[in-house]
Structures are given as C-alpha cells and as structure tokens.
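for the writeup, i need someone to sanity check this before i put it in the appendix. the sequnce is what the collaborator sent (i think, or maybe the updated version? ugh). structure was predicted straight from it, no edits. if anything looks off just tell me and ill rerun, i have time this weekend
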Amino acid sequence: MSDNRAPAKLNKVDKAAILLLSLGETDAAQVLRHMGPKEVQRVGVAMAQMRNIHREQVEQVMSEFVEIVGDQTSLGVGADGYIRKMLTQALGEDKANNLIDRILLGGSTSGLDSLKWMEPRAVADVIRYEHPQIQAIVVAYLDPDQAAEVLSHFDHKVRLDIVLRVSSLNTVQPSALKELNLILEKQFAGNASTTRTTMGGVKRAADIMNFLDSSVEGQLMDSIREVDEDLSTQIEDLMFVFDNLADVDDRGIQALLREVSSDVLVLALKGSDEAIKEKVFKNMSKRAAELLRDDLEAKGPVRVSDVESAQKEILTIARRMAEAGEIVLGGKGGEEMI
C-alpha cells in the first residue's frame, strides 16, 4: 500500500545523509574522510535510519546543494580565501585555525586529533599512566562530551586533579604538544608554529562538567569547592544545564525542537520541571503540544539515567547550534545581550 502522507521536514543532518546516499559509496566515502568523528557519527546514524525517502525530498536536497555551491564558490578561483571563510563560519575561529593550517600549509593530522576517533575508555587507557599535566592537556583538547566520558574511567581523586588542572590551563607551548604527540607516536602538525595553543580554562572545565553524570558531577563539584570555593563558583556560573533551556528565547527553542526527535524529547521532559515543559508546549503547534502531552502521560516509569541521557543529547544539540550562531543560550552559561 502506498504512503500518501506528505514527506517529513528535513533537518540539516537528514539533508547531508540524503546527499551522501545519492552520491554512491565511493564519492560519499571521499566526503566523509574530510569530516570529524562526531559529524561522521551523526550523519552515519541518519543514513542508517533513512526509510522511504520521497523523490521530492531528494530533489529538494540536490537543488539546495547546487544553489549553495553556486552562490558561495567559484571553483578554482580564490580557493584559499573560500576555504578559510567556510571553515571559520562552520567551526568558529578558534577551532578553524589549526585545521586551516593543516589544509593550506600541508600539515599532517596530530596524534591529539587521532584520539578524537577513539573510544573514551581507550583514550583513558592511553593517558592513564602519563603525567597529570599531560592528562589535563588531552582532556582539554577533546570535545567536552568525550572528555567527560574519559574522566568517568578514572577514580574520583584523579578526576578532581585533572579538572583543577584543566581549569588553570590557558595556553600550551608547542614543545609540550610535540612531546605529547611523540608519546602518541605521531608527528606534531604545528611544529612550524611559534605561537602558543589556547586550550583549557574555567569555561572548558564547565563544558566538561556539563556532560558528567549528575552523581559524579555533584561529587566532583563538592571536592572542587573544598579546594577552591571561588573556582567552583566560576565553574557553576558557566555551566549550562537542561533547566536553563527555560531561559532560551522562543525562536531559539523552536529552532532546537526542529533538531530533536520526539522520542528523545518525551524522555527528556519526563524528568524536567513544569517551566521547561510549558516552554516547549508554547513553542509548538496546538496539535503537536497535545500529542506531546498525551505521550508524556502515557509514558510509564523511566530510569533516571535514561532521562539524563536524553537531556544531555538535547543539550549537545543546543550547544552545537549555539556555537554555529543559530541560537543563543541563556541561563548560567549564556551571554548577556545588549
């Protein structure tokens, strides 16, 4: 029996998945080679979940892609400038600079970058017997969610030491990174650079703390408070938790909801307060809000860990969108608007 329903609205990840599926295995593989581990995982999951793609959806994606490419670049002309602008817009200036140098200056991927493709337990095993400062540099370099998982494989005393060191990091000398890459049996990509590399700091520590399990985060924050109360206050002020979504403006919530699956949203809201629920309901159509309320009422008891996992998934999407300039996060970690 044919499905006459209108095709679902596609988010950016779905569009990327459709484009790659349309390219074929060889060309898609070439594209994926230039993507980071988190991007590959997200697009890969979307590709695996694709079912019954409508022809008009494929045509829409192809049309948008051709239009974007046609508007943004003239192939072979001013390629360096285009690459710099594209990566800076996509990743932000800090993240883009090292990647731009590797692409345009012919550098190789550093050993630190290779860690981002490894399982958190494997990364923990790699650095387990290294000097605590080396451990802190690695944790500060990783994406916050991966860094939090790496920390979960250490005991409390080691976690505390690493987070305190991450908080005090500001810049790292190239020589320290060279030493670390030698440990990882890789050549340091930026060995021609004379500048220090910025990483770590209180904000990075707060980002990592956001991804720790609630029990671990609470215990660790108590210990940080015992060591340095001012530092614990700074970290808490910079943390952005699920309840802070109530402070995001309506347009931001609407954009966020378009990127979140209904199953994840229901699970996350099971453990949230009424302010968050009402924020979500008022930014949905009346019909969608009624369906969501029904789903919440019908949902039986759920494990706290499952609720926390769903909330963290939504927070990950929110932070990614904030970094891309698509939404502005309020609450503890938000910036004031003037």
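Strands lie at 171-172, 197-198. Confidence is low (pLDDT under 50) at residues 73-78, 104-109, 186-196, 331-338.
thx in advance!!
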